[in-house]
Structure to design on (959 residues):
């Protein structure tokens, strides 16, 4: 460290952390900057800045409603760099509103809306959701870190008012063909999908689209909805709505394995339905509770059954391609480095004994993988504190892929590439160079969760991955199978 | 069928709270979506944020607020008399009591200007022969101190009212309620800034002996009492916001009183000359009118209407309709403003005075659109002035039926601060203010604009919820 740390404090200026991180990232990318950070001066953030040695006296006096801009660099450049950071703040995206009109600051100032999308920091998310419900809005709650008690309170309030709460921790939904959060452009059709796992729902909807069928509604319920405490309140509420929805003929329910009592009540409700219901509690072997209930073990199978029921003919998911390759000696381990949590979960189940952590990880330190198969969810909390999700910003994942590609014991690097709204503009393009580095080393197996309609362009993304040397699998399940085949493991 | 089926059968109309990028796919699909200019509510206090959500659309609060704000809007304010304070406020005649601005405070914690003003008042009342012994007396506990607000009164800056000082008597003719304020001494060295030398005290003695009685005689000779609320309404059309700019209201008032004062002989002429020298002469009367209006909204169960904002130079305090007499206090901020040559922020006393009663009643900073000259204190433009008035509508319950803002299409001034809206939007009430030197006796060193500190609002919110 040869540079000097200096801060600029903007009093009572609130900025979203993602906006701030983007600006900080663009600053640190400059060779003359040793370190830079933009943070609201909350006690936790101040600790981070202090430990990073980024706080000078002026910065130290900031409060929770103040923005701290901190840069460490050559003293002569500091003022210019701080000015650049401030200029970056002025270009933050403006809310959609008529010219000259002031956007409202609080939900209570709005009128006539029927749905609220909430992505505030978790500590405030439940309060915003409760306000939205009291104003008669359905809620799409992307924010995480909402307690189960608060989730229950929200869903009870929603029940009283006949409203739906999607979330907390709900990443995806498609309502009336409109994508909310992370979603893909899928054909409209008669399959209603209710999902407690975000990328799982995205994958199933994309595979249904690929099979030629379509989606009536994709309703996310949040990853904790099927917990014992919450009791699948949102899933059952959405089920009733889709049951009554004339546009929905087939339903798909997808979730990680729920609490047993919750699984029972969901299966009972499905059995009472007058519609065909595909149930995928990922990795669980379910018994059909009634002739109209179709258990599916994997995401691909769930999509396959649903598409078959919708189209009235048997549809088969594409099988994994066979790859003739000889791996060098000592290359025995699969390194699955996923951006989608459901994919990591599914891969872990399919592969059996795998590690799901690399132990204590410190940003900036060399990445060391444990011996044996590893399935990592790079969208997990450990990797997303203070930085965007890898589906939004692939930077960190590229570092992990590079480490895996160059590790002498890596046999297969397994990757997901998620397209659609919310995702990065060119995820395959970001991964292609580091995939190229695998030449002569491990095999890179990748699959794309996306459709031809997605703005990133499915064909273009495929070309970039295979052009770099990756083997493309048709879906998440097939990708894991292919990886297992390559190392001689059984799935 | 449930409301979700209605949603699925109809069109989405969305509000986006948080990341702006979440609105993009909806907007691209032609869906109506509004992204809030959101910030964490209640100073980022998550517990208070949840409290706000629970208290939203609470029938008891809404009903209380409807009652309280209607009383505020309907209140009238006419000036009926000028009398020695002890005749208007009985407690001042009963023991050695002095009134001061802001929430309650002990002598030991008072700021310099407040102590200076009180010591001066003690000498003025003849309770001590000189300032040194006046301060000893004050510290001894033999003189009691109380907020003006506890006695239906208000005073700018130190806001000291002593028994012999003349006060304006304002009355709401409909309810008979009364409110009081002292007389403005003029700019420069003044007791309200803590100045207390012989010159200052001599002027006060003259005001007691001549200005008060002469104004009283003039007022009593009028066929109709002077309607201060109406003068404020007119002054807003003349570039005043009636807190930091009072040129219009002082002129209108002088014109109304001039013939009657002229009939009081030489004394009347001296009072007219006194009024001519002080662009803020009408401020105290405007404040008393505002006190009448806000007092009308006090004491309504469960109401979240802010009925008082006041500062004693150390603490900033608010009172809430549904919480009765209780004060919620936090440290007073140092205003952002322009300083007279030779002074700077290091000389400034934290915010001081009852004059934020103007903002509490919907004028002052809330009516800034009408007074673009005032934003000049912080280097602002007319557009900034309008922006303040537009923003304040986010935190108020209603618009005045009488006070209009010409640059905003003559819309009523935003009136009646709702505690919940302040915390929910993160918009703190804006307050125009003078800046006093932190040492007594030096006087005003600047003027500017400040914001009410939010901490006391957070505390008050919890108290209202407890009352439910």
């Amino acid at each position: 460290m040869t540079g000097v740390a200096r801060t600029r404090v903007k009093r009572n200026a609130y900025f979203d952390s993602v906006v701030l991180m983007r600006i900080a990232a663009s600053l640190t990318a400059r060779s003359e900057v040793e370190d830079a950070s933009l943070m609201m001066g909350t006690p936790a953030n101040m600790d981070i800045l202090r430990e990073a040695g980024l706080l000078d006296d002026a910065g130290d006096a900031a409060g929770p409603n103040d923005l701290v801009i901190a840069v460490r660099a050559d003293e002569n450049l500091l003022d210019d760099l701080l000015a650049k950071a401030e200029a970056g703040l002025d270009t933050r995206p403006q809310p959609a509103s008529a010219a000259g009109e002031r956007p409202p600051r609080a939900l209570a100032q709005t009128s006539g809306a029927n749905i609220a999308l909430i992505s505030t920091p978790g500590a405030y998310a439940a309060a915003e959701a409760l306000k939205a419900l009291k104003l008669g809005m359905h809620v799409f709650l992307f924010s995480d870190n909402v307690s189960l008690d608060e989730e229950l309170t929200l869903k009870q309030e929603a029940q009283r008012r006949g409203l739906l709460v999607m979330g907390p921790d709900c990443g995806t939904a498609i309502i009336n063909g409109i994508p909310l959060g992370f979603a893909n452009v899928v054909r409209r059709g008669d399959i209603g999908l209710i999902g407690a796992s975000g990328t799982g729902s995205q994958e199933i909807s994309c595979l249904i689209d690929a099979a030629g069928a379509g989606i009536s509604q994709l309703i996310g319920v949040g990853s904790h909805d099927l917990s014992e405490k919450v009791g699948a309140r949102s899933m059952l509420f959405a089920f009733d709505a889709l049951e009554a929805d004339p546009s929905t003929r087939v339903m798909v329910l997808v979730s990680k394995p729920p609490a047993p009592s919750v699984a029972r009540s969901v299966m009972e409700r499905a059995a009472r339905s007058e519609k065909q219901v595909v149930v995928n509690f990922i990795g669980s072997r379910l018994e059909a509770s009634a002739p109209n209930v179709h258990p599916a073990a994997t995401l691909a199978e769930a999509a396959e059954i649903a598409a078959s029921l919708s189209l009235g003919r048997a549809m088969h998911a594409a099988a994994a391609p066979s790859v003739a390759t000889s791996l060098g000696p000592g290359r025995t381990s699969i390194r699955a480095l996923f951006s989608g949590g459901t994919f990591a979960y599914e891969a872990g189940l399919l592969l059996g004994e795998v590690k799901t952590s690399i132990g204590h990880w410190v940003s900036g330190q060399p990445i060391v993988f444990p011996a044996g198969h590893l399935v990592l969810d790079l969208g997990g909390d450990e990797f997303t504190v203070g930085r965007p999700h890898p589906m939004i910003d692939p930077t960190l994942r590229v570092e992990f892929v590079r480490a895996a590609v160059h590790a002498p014991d890596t046999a297969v690097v397994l990757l997901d590439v998620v397209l659609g709204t919310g995702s990065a503009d060119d995820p395959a393009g970001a991964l292609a160079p580091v995939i190229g580095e695998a030449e002569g080393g491990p095999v890179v197996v990748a699959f794309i969760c996306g459709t031809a309609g997605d703005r990133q362009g499915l064909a273009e993304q495929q070309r970039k991955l295979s052009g770099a040397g990756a083997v493309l699998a048709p879906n998440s399940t097939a990708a894991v199978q292919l990886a297992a085949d390559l190392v001689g493991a059984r799935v | 069928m449930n409301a979700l089926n209605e949603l699925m059968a109809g069109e989405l109309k969305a509000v986006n709270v948080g990341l702006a990028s979440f609105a993009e796919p909806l907007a691209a699909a032609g869906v109506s979506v509004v992204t809030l200019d959101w910030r964490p509510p209640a100073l980022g206090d998550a517990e208070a944020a949840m409290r706000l959500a629970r208290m939203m659309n609470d029938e008891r609060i809404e009903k209380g607020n409807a009652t309280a704000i209607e009383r505020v809007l309907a209140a009238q304010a006419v000036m009926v008399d000028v009398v020695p304070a002890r005749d208007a406020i009985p407690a001042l005649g009963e023991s050695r009591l002095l009134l001061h601005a802001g929430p309650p405070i002990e002598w030991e914690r008072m700021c310099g200007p407040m102590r200076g003003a009180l010591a001066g008042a003690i000498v003025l009342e003849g309770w001590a022969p000189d300032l040194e012994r006046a301060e000893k007396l004050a510290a001894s506990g033999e003189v009691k101190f109380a907020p003006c607000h506890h006695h239906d009164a208000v005073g700018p800056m130190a806001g000291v009212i002593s028994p012999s000082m003349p006060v304006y008597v304002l009355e709401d003719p409909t309810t008979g309620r009364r409110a009081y304020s002292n007389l403005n001494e003029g700019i420069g060295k003044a007791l309200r800034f803590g100045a207390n030398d012989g010159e200052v005290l001599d002027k006060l003695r003259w005001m007691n002996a001549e200005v008060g009685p002469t104004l009283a005689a003039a007022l009593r000779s009028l066929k109709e009492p002077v309607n201060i609320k109406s003068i404020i309404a007119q002054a807003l059309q003349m570039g005043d916001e009636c807190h930091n700019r009072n040129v219009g209201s002082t002129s209108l008032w002088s014109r109304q009183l001039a013939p009657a004062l002229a009939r009081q002989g030489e004394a009347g002429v001296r009072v007219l000359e006194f009024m001519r020298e002080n662009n803020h002469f009408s401020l105290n009367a405007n404040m008393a009118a505002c006190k009448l209006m806000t007092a009308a909204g006090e004491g309504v169960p469960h109401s979240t209407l802010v009925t008082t904002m006041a500062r004693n130079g150390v603490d900033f305090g608010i009172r809430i309709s549904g919480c009765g007499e209780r004060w919620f206090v936090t440290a007073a901020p140092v205003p952002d403003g322009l300083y007279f040559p030779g002074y700077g922020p290091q000389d400034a006393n934290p915010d001081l005075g009852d004059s934020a009663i103007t903002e509490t009643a919907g004028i002052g900073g809330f009516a800034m659109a009408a007074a673009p000259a005032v934003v000049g204190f912080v280097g602002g433009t007319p557009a900034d002035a309008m922006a303040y008035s537009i923003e304040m509508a986010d935190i108020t319950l209603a618009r005045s039926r009488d006070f209009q803002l010409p640059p905003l299409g003559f819309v009523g001034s935003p009136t009646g601060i709702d505690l919940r809206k302040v915390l929910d939007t993160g918009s703190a009430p804006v307050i125009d203010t003078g800046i006093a030197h932190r040492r007594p006796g030096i006087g005003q060193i600047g003027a500017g604009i400040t914001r009410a500190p939010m901490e006391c609002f957070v505390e008050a919110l919890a108290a209202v919820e407890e009352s439910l």
Notes: The two ends of chain B are 35 Å apart (CA to CA). Chain B touches chain A through 55 residues (CB under 8 Å). Chain B has a mean pLDDT of 95.
